[in-house]
Specification:
Elements (H helix, E strand, L loop, with lengths): L2 H36 L6 H28 L2 H35 L4 E13 L17 E5 L5 H13 L5 E5 L2 H10 L4 E5 L2 H5 L6 H4 L2 E14 L13 E9 L2 E11 L4 E7 L4 E3 L8 E3 L3 H4 L1 H12 L5 E6 H11 L2 E5 L3 E5 L2 E9 L2 E5 L1 H9 L8 H20 L4 H14 E3 L3 H16 L10 E6 L2 E8 L4 E8 L1 H15 L50 H9 L4 E7 L15 E4 L12 E7 L12 E4 L4 E4 L3 E3 L2 H5 L5 E3 L31 E3 L5 E3 L8 E3 L5 E3 L8 E3 L5 E3 L22 H16 L1
Parallel strand pairs: 2-3, 2-4, 6-11, 8-17, 20-22
Antiparallel strand pairs: 1-4, 1-5, 6-7, 7-8, 9-10, 11-16, 12-15, 13-14, 18-19, 21-22, 23-24, 25-26, 27-28, 29-30, 31-32
Helix pairs in contact: 1-2, 1-3, 2-3, 3-13, 10-11, 10-13, 11-12
């Protein structure tokens, strides 16, 4: 064997060593891929077996080539081995990547009972004036501190107590059933500080009347901890054979902003969706004594509290839950490529990550909407006459649209993006096997049906109806909005759910059936809009009103009828709160806020605008009139432009006897506002003359006549010639010549008998000018 052949074989040996290492790595990737997809074997056991066999064959061929190449050491065998190895390595890598990515998101979505979450706690203080006496945690020594009464609550009980004990700060604890009661106690001064979730402002600012109080709060300490959250596991039902219920929860800042109880019958493929208004005032399962509150606040305590509350309300067992936050809706819809929505009105809605920022345009009609648009549509309620009820219907439409698009998915990349979005924002207690079996079952149903896939599932929507009411809160002195549900609506919706999930339930046939080809069956209404039930409204006490913008006399009259003393604090020019454009005695502030019960008030101090002693830099030829609160022109002058005058502009100019007509070179940017004077009341036969007086009504003049200035008519004066003058009747008469002597000379004393030629020429020129004019 030559030296060259030895070197070539040595080189091939090294290459074989590298190929063997890559082959081992490929084997590992393939095995990991097989293990990752094992949990999804229920999709199709036959397909799963085929995939495993194919992978094993590829691995056997690959490893056989590596071994043969190491023995034969031939270049042509080496090239084949490298080609197969590259394909197998890339396939194994792709399989492992995709399955790992899917499993990671599935693990995030599936809640098997316990999950790890990071929570943030804030120690919050309140000051009505905004001047805080408690600035940090050390200032809490000896103060009263609000916590929840539930000893298992991490944010409201366990973590704040541990933090205070760790820092050796002694406080007096006051316990409350819920965060809302604790917050109201903080506002009323019952406690000095409270332990609240760090996003407490966003959680409670949606409640009417809270914003003014929340603006005067401050978090003196915020800290976070990782905790274990427990949620009851889902039912072990075979959901391809047994009907089940799902509570769909849409969250925003830990509040349940959307609540829908769904029931699914796999035999009939019918789904009912029952919406529950977020402001529904119902007993909360996790509150002490199940005291009543808005159902949206139950989620602030926990997900399980919301589930238990809905179970108690509807008297229906909830088998599973499905929860998504607003960001999840946006990302999933975008991953699906949008959803088809029918919207009756064009509007601009709120962006998901910018509360109060209306920047999302939603077009009218049937359109494919992106994530932000779909969410804005699902959240909108102010535009519609039905308000929150229409919003519930919109939310159901969005859910149905998402399901429709998801059932049409064929693109692997798009499916992975949807899973990524769901993994970060969705949680459910369905097991993987349950979801897979339901998916397979639905596919079979679709394949056996002649209708479109989207129409295989029949979805029926309804809502728990009620009426808007109010609840007087004594501690906050506020009349809070609530939504009281009709018990009849709760019963009707429960019965509809039970009919859907009870396989032995009685089917109600239509009362009237027509055999006409034009007859259209109309499904019965599941719940009425109103019920004959007592309407409950809390008696609202007489409260202090908002004085801003009212005149002092109005406020004094209101206070006198309630035996409240009004003290006046005048706001002059240069003081805070002074508004130059406000009328004299306009109220701009009050010492007692609106909403406080008048029976608890004996005196109120109001801030009123006064222009007394006010000076103003008025332009030339003008002076400040305090009564009018404006600059006015001195006698003999007029304002060319009122707005300029009152802002120190061009001011007043002299009023000439006759104003020449001029064409302005520029168009004024503002048009002065002129307040018309009130015309006088004139006697019969007279009319206003425009100067505050009256004049005779001008009669209609005939041909050859003109007004005489006194309401009558006179002949139109003709043009008179030389040595003539008007005769007073429209005609002309000769001017009487001066007396002359026998020689024709004038007898007038002091006059010469000859007229200068220059004067005669000027006289004729002026006469000619008069005629031509």
């Amino acid at each position: 064997m030559t030296k060259q052949n030895k070197m070539s074989k040595r080189k091939l040996s090294n290459i074989n060593f590298v190929l063997a290492a890559i082959a081992i790595l490929t084997d590992i990737l393939m095995v990991l891929g097989i293990l990752n997809i094992t949990r999804y074997s229920n999709f199709s056991k036959s397909i799963f077996v085929v995939i495993n066999v194919v992978i094993l064959v590829i691995l056997l061929v690959l490893n056989g080539l590596i071994a043969y190449n190491a023995y034969a050491m031939k270049k042509n065998i080496l090239y084949v081995t490298i080609g197969v190895l590259v394909i197998a390595f890339l396939s194994g890598g792709a399989l492992t990547y995709v399955t790992t990515r899917v499993n990671k998101n599935i693990d995030k979505i599936i809640n098997t009972g316990t999950t790890n979450e990071k929570v943030e706690v804030s120690f919050v203080v309140y000051s009505e004036s905004g001047n805080f006496t408690i600035d940090d945690i050390n200032d809490l020594e000896g103060k009263t501190f609000g916590i929840l009464s539930n000893t298992e609550e991490q944010v409201g009980y366990i973590l704040p107590k541990k933090e205070l004990e760790a820092k050796k700060i002694n406080v007096t604890y006051h316990e409350y059933d819920d965060y809302n009661s604790m917050l109201m106690a903080l506002f009323s001064g019952e406690i000095d500080a409270a332990a609240l979730p760090s996003n407490y402002v966003a959680m409670f600012e949606v409640n009417d009347g809270y914003s003014e109080f929340l603006d005067n709060t401050k978090a003196i300490l915020t800290f976070d901890k990782n905790i274990t959250v427990t949620t009851e596991s889902g039912s072990d039902k075979d959901i391809t054979k047994e009907p089940f219920t799902v509570l769909i929860i849409g969250t925003d800042e830990q509040r349940s902003d959307a609540l829908m109880l769904a029931s699914f019958n796999p035999i009939s493929m019918q789904v009912t969706l029952t919406s529950i208004a977020r402001d529904s005032y119902v007993p909360i399962a996790c509150y002490a004594g199940k005291s009543e509150d808005k159902i949206t606040h139950a989620r602030v305590r926990s997900r399980q509290c919301t589930i238990d509350t809905v179970e108690d309300l509807m008297d229906v067992d909830i088998d599973f839950y499905f929860e998504s936050n607003f960001a999840g809706v946006v990302e999933m819809v975008d991953a699906l490529g949008g959803v088809i929505i029918t919207n009756p009105y064009e509007f601009v809605g709120q962006k998901s990550d910018a509360r109060g920022k209306m920047t999302v345009w939603v077009p009218a009609g049937t359109n494919r909407l992106n994530g932000e648009q779909a969410l804005a549509y699902a959240r909108e309620r102010h535009l519609y006459a039905n308000g929150d009820f229409q919003r519930q219907a919109n939310q159901q439409q969005v859910i149905q649209a998402i399901l429709t698009e998801a059932m049409k998915l064929t693109d692997v990349n798009k499916a992975l993006k949807v899973l990524d979005a769901a993994g970060e924002n969705v949680s459910t207690n369905f097991t993987v096997d349950q979801l897979i079996s339901l998916f397979n079952y639905s596919i079979k149903k679709m394949n056996r049906s002649y209708v479109k896939n989207a129409n295989v599932i029949n979805m029926v929507g309804s809502r728990v109806t009620g009426y808007g009411s109010s609840k007087w809160n004594e501690s906050m002195q506020l009349n809070l909005y609530i939504y009281r549900v009709y018990q009849g609506s709760v019963t009707d919706n429960r019965n509809a759910i039970l009919r859907n999930i009870n396989l032995d339930s009685k089917i109600d046939a239509p009362k009237a059936i027509s055999f006409s080809a034009n007859w259209v069956f109309t499904a019965p209404t599941l719940s009425n809009e109103t019920y004959s039930e007592p309407i409950i409204h809390d008696e609202v006490p007489d409260t202090v009103i908002n004085f801003s913008g009212k005149q002092l006399s109005e406020v004094q009259e209101w206070a006198a009828s309630r035996k409240i003393t009004i003290y006046v604090n005048k706001i002059h020019q240069g003081q805070e709160g002074y508004v130059d454009s406000y009328a004299e005695n306009t109220v701009v502030g009050q010492s007692v806020r609106p909403g406080i019960k008048t029976e608890n008030v004996t005196e109120i101090t109001v801030n009123v605008i006064t222009h007394e002693g006010t000076t103003k830099n008025c332009p030339a030829n003008s002076y400040y009139d305090s009564g009018k609160n404006a600059c006015v022109c001195e006698s003999g002058y007029y304002a060319k432009n009122d707005s300029d005058l009152n802002t120190g502009g061009v001011g007043c100019i002299a009023n000439p006897t006759s104003t020449p007509t001029t064409t302005p070179t520029t168009t004024p940017s503002t048009v002065p506002t002129i307040t018309p004077s009130i015309p006088p009341t004139c006697p019969e036969g007279q009319e206003p003359d425009g100067n505050g007086g009256c004049k005779p009504i001008q009669q209609q003049c005939g041909e050859g006549q003109e007004p005489d200035g006194n309401g009558g008519c006179k002949p139109i004066q003709q043009q008179c010639g030389e040595n003539q003058e008007p005769d007073g009747n429209g005609g002309c008469k000769d001017i009487n010549p001066p007396a002359t002597d026998d020689n024709g000379n004038s007898n007038q004393e002091g006059e010469t008998s000859e007229t200068p030629v220059a004067f005669i020429s000027l006289y004729h020129f002026l006469s000619l000018f008069q005629i031509l004019k």
